[in-house]
Amino acid sequence: MHPPQFTAEPPSTDPVETDSTVSGRPSSSTSGTDSASPAYDVIIAGCGPTGAMLAAELRLHDVRVLVLEKETEPPSAARIVGLHIRSLELMAMRGLLERILPHGRQRPASAFFAAIPKPAPKGLDSRYAYLLGVRQPVIERLLEQHATELGAQVRRGRAVAGFEQDDEGVTVELADGERLRSRYLVGCDGGRSTVRKLLGVGFPGEAARTESLMGEMEVGVPQEEIAVKVAEIRETHQRFWLRPVGVGVYSVLVPAAGISDRAEPPTLEDFKRQLRAIAGTDFGVHSPRWLSRFGDAMRLADRYRVGRVLLAGDAAHIHPPIGGQGLNLGVQDAFNLGWKLAARIRGWAPETLLDTYQAERRPVAEEVLDNTRAQTELLSTEPGPQAVRRLLIELMDFDEVNLHLLEKITAIGIRYDFGAGPDLVGRRLRDIDVKQGHLYGLLHQGRGLLLDRTERLTVGGWSDRVDHLADPTAELDVPCVLLRPDGHVAWIGDDQQDLDEHLSRWFGEPAH
Ligand SMILES: Cc1cc2nc3c(=O)[nH]c(=O)nc-3n(C[C@H](O)[C@H](O)[C@H](O)COP(=O)(O)OP(=O)(O)OC[C@H]3O[C@@H](n4cnc5c(N)ncnc54)[C@H](O)[C@@H]3O)c2cc1C
Q1: From ligand 1's centre to the CA of 314, what distance in Å?
Q2: What pLDDT digit, counting tens, does each position of 4-58 carry?
Q3: Rounded CA gap, 378 and 173, in Å?
Q4: CA-CA distance, 106 to 48, in Å (whole number)?
Q5: 198, 214, 327: which to mutate for ligand 1, most atoms within 8 A of CB?
């Protein structure tokens, strides 16, 4: 095995960008630091889960990363999100899963699709076949910690307000007027992304039709009384719950009175009014821990990259939380982008590698928006959608249907289009047994891996970026597999020349 970094050379030889003349709308005239060589390789706007994950992935390759976060403090809206199978696999691949597991609750991998209560399907092909319910701020804190331990700088209370890009880099302007120079800028700044807006990238889709209020608060009536009332209302309202989340503290979800354009949180009075309107009682709610609102808008960015500026996470796609896919999608965007952007900066990326980020990830988001649309329809109380829901409930008794839907939501069914080839090419490889333990344990440094049962192939001049494990006992039913740093299968075969072509395709020219 090889040391963690791709090369020892300084990150200086950035290949010419194909479309680097396309600029984000200039914020102001260039001066000061603009003409100097960039202090950073990548500036990331936003330290949510996507930004933190991306920072960590870039640091694995010694990329100089600065994360600018608008908020001075980490978020307090402690909604519980679910980490789905593929995200758990990514965490395992970087040695993070053990850190996250104690903070969450493992639940069966079931009842995700439109909240239809079916057991987990048989044949789930993963070592991590469960859902981990965990508070979003915990995920954000652990990912930020991971990134900073690896050497990323995070500056809080620093909002990106503008930027301009040229052939060599991007000048980023902060809200306080400070200007910073980097080679790339990635907008991980959420659904209302400043970076996306300044970039002029379209964000078409559907405006919100409904809005929900969500928060945590104490209640003034006994638990049994709440349970009866909630069960009664949930027969007709899926967007309604009061669930205990701690001693005397409830998570409350209730439809809002209408659509608001405001970013600021609702008030306790808003909750009381809506609870009374729907349940006939406000359950004596008081002492809120946090209050928030969210809508069901669905939008997808037209482009994920314009020259040296890229988008990831909610900045590139938004959709309602049904199925719990948003955070997972963003973290997986970061995982896909990190090694490619690092390769670009380290100077070995094949010409089109960075473009594969949009080519691979935008269709995945498109698909998530689509399944979310379908799930939203299935939650409608109208007779038509209710009939379709009943039919789907029947169909999900077929294990294949249940499995198909679960693979969609958990993202383990994704197959990137790498061209013609065996079905496994383009898919992720599960965490199989190898002679040194588990496969994912070999991927902590974010390098490529040749898993070789023939013991006669070599990674030759790519050994500075691709590891080679000769293991005739590996739990594979093919001779050899070339894995990208994100764990997707880039090649299957047993021919050295064919392998070399694929190494070039994904890992550039050999070093020697
Ligand atoms: C009620 C609810 C439940 C959900 N449940 C789930 C679930 O179970 N599973 C799941 O996967 N997803 C879930 N989601 C979705 C998930 O919360 C989001 O998809 C996720 O937070 C997106 O992460 P992100 O890092 O892309 O963006 P964000 O989390 O929005 O982070 C963006 C960051 O950028 C910062 N920022 C904004 N503008 C600037 C600027 N100009 N300069 C610098 N920083 C800036 C923000 O302060 C923020 O910290 C849920 C969402 C809601 C509303």
Answers
A1: 6
A2: 332 222 333 343 343 333 333 333 333 223 345 789 999 999 999 999 999 999 9
A3: 44
A4: 23
A5: 327
